[in-house]
Design a protein that fits this description.
Blueprint (H helix, E strand, L loop, with lengths): L1 E6 L8 E6 L8 E10 L2 H8 L16 E8 L11 E4 L14 E5 L3 E3 L6 H21 L7 E4 L5 H12 L3 E6 L5 H7 L3 E4 L6 H7 L5 E6 L6 H6 L1 E9 L19 E4 L3 H4 L2 H17 L6 E6 L3 H8 L8 E5 L6
Parallel strand pairs: 8-9, 8-11, 9-10, 11-12, 12-13, 14-15
Antiparallel strand pairs: 1-2, 3-4, 3-6, 3-15, 4-5, 5-7
């Protein structure tokens, strides 16, 4: 039996329950792991609410980012052995392989070896942000030195990772935040400029922050009707990648007189669902960690029993930049 977090109805953090449940043996292509820490993100908050891309199959577990140790491997798994320290990359449905638990069964293909010397809490915070950013700036678009790149709603783990990655590639990151609190962290991470979004038109401030030339690339976590302001801040031939939906509103195709841009939706599953792309992403992230260019930022660490408070914090507008993590075991290695 393993303590497992589930919900039997959609709703607020109060619907989350801790239950003792049996853990099945891993099947072909699967691995059973001891979970030491879990990375938290808004996808799980929306999944719990019933507003995510996929609907929960109730009663539902949740979570797709974790770090721990291999306990048992499926009959055809040769890459992993019991005792291996691993991290779990989101490459699967939360309905099928939830990781908010003391033990979890996950696809072997979704595992990466934890970097030497990295603790479980940091390991749970690394892969989702950096792999997400890698896909946008190396697979969908190939960022070049000197490119001016706008990162919206950047005071979070993906925004910080984006700024670090862009600076590492020689680009010029310009971040937006909704409150001044995240400004210093983004400047320290390498942002050339940080624009505080007070709800007024962003086009002018962003054009000014790019020296009047406009953005070559926009990584937009917000979506909704204000994407038109981002398009208006672009240089001719720019790309706008909408990778989030924080606005909660539909994202229209902007009309009017704008410079011609390419706009598309992006999901991290484009990378994690492609084994070759995922291996490229893993190599890229490992290299950045090894040389010190990528420094994962853990915001707050919550104990397993405090999962409701953790979810409330993830959804709070006042949270600090960085990755909230759920510590499953008090002495996570």
């Amino acid at each position: 039996m393993a303590r497992t977090i589930r919900f039997h109805e959609t709703g607020g953090p109060e619907v989350l329950r801790i239950e003792d449940l049996p853990v099945r043996a891993p099947g072909p292509g699967e691995v059973r792991i001891r979970v030491d820490a879990v990375g938290l993100n808004r996808a799980e908050v929306n999944f719990r609410r019933g507003t995510y891309l996929e609907r929960p199959r109730l009663p539902a577990g949740l979570g797709s980012e974790a770090a721990g140790e291999v306990l048992e491997v499926g009959p055809d798994v040769t890459r992993w052995r019991p005792g291996d320290a691993v991290c779990v990359i989101p490459a699967f449905s939360q309905n099928d392989f939830p990781v908010y638990a003391e033990e979890a069964v996950v696809p072997a293909a979704a595992l990466v070896a934890r970097p030497p010397g990295m603790d479980a809490v940091t390991g749970a915070a690394v892969w989702m942000p950096y792999v997400t950013v890698y896909g946008m700036v190396q697979e969908v678009v190939r960022v070049r030195p000197g490119d001016r790149v706008v990162v919206t709603a950047a005071a979070n783990s993906i925004g910080l990772a984006a700024v670090q990655v862009l600076r590492h590639l020689g680009a010029v990151p310009v971040a937006t935040v909704t409150a001044p609190a995240g400004r210093d962290a983004l400047l320290a991470a390498g942002a050339a400029e940080v624009v505080v979004d007070d709800g007024s038109d962003l086009a002018g401030p962003l054009r000014a922050a790019t020296g009047g030339a406009g953005a070559d690339l926009v990584l937009d976590a917000v979506g909704g009707p204000r994407v038109a302001e981002l398009v208006a801040a672009c240089a001719p031939g720019a790309t706008v990648l909408v990778h989030g939906g924080l606005s909660g509103e539909p994202t229209p195709l902007p009309g009017g007189r704008y410079a011609p841009v390419w706009m598309r939706r992006y999901l991290v599953f484009e990378i994690t669902g492609d084994p070759a792309a995922l291996r490229r992403a893993e190599h890229f992230v490992r290299a950045g960690l090894a040389c010190g260019a990528f420094v994962p930022t853990v915001d707050r660490v919550f104990d397993f029993d405090d999962v409701a408070a953790a979810h409330a914090y993830v959804d709070s507008p006042d949270r600090a930049p960085g990755k909230p993590v759920l510590r499953v075991r008090p002495t996570s290695p």
